[in-house]
Amino acid sequence: RISPAPFSFVFAPADLSDSTLSYTETEATNSLITAPGEFSDASMSPDATKPSHWCSVAYWEHRTRVGRLYAVYDQAVSIFYDLPQGSGFCLGQLNLEQRSESVRRTRSKIGFGIVLSKEPDGVWAYNRGEHPIFVNSPTLDAPGGRALVVRKVPPGYSIKVFDFERSGLRQQAPEADAADGPYDPNSVRISFAKGWGPCYSRQFITSCPCWLEILLNNQR
């Protein structure tokens, strides 16, 4: 369901250390897996005093991951390019030596970005920007369907990007690879300003200039 919703949150500062990682269709999931006891990102380091994070956010530009995984501990997090008097995951401070013109144009459209919020029924995304966002997740796809479903969310609207109940039912079914990469039953992909899939000229998420990969812990 896509619906208008007001929102106002306070967030913890982001870890803005820079790093890049090449993305391929066949290594979309495996590239983010670490062996037990190994932590590829400072934000993922073990700390007995911290509660468990409920998701991690990766920011991509086409096939390149920019910056480190951002672990989310609070119920809600803001992900933005420029948000006066706000804090969270600031994409505007993530540097990359060479950016294409299409990436620079799309980054300029991120603006206030989105708010991700973990609610009792699932994870919601609120579009705070002035341009649409495009969303795909396993629980948005039609049950038993093979076609990729990408939802367009206009500015000022929200959508439940991940449904806990539907996820539990879907994970009882055999796993399958998605049309544009390995199937991950606990991930959400969000593109800023540019859509992808059967209804768009961009067939794959990696053709989108600026997008997010939300890696959910398998916990409610």
UniProtKB/TrEMBL annotation:
Check the record and name the InterPro entries matching this protein. Answer: Dwarfin, SMAD-like_dom_sf, SMAD_dom_Dwarfin-type, SMAD_FHA_dom_sf
Residue ranges annotated for the MH2 domain, each copy included: 54-220
**Annotated signal sequence range:** none
Q: Which CDD domains match?
A: MH2_SMAD_6
Gene Ontology biological process terms in this record: anatomical structure morphogenesis; BMP signaling pathway; cell differentiation; regulation of transcription by RNA polymerase II; SMAD protein signal transduction
> Could you tell me one molecular function GO term of this UniProt entry?
transcription regulator inhibitor activity
Which domain of life, per UniProt?
A: Eukaryota
PROSITE patterns in the record, alphabetically?
MH2
Cross-referenced SMART domains:
DWB
Keyword annotations: Transcription, Transcription regulation
Q: Which GO terms describe its cellular component?
A: heteromeric SMAD protein complex
One Pfam family, please name it: MH2
Q: What is this protein called?
A: MH2 domain-containing protein
Species name = Oryctolagus cuniculus
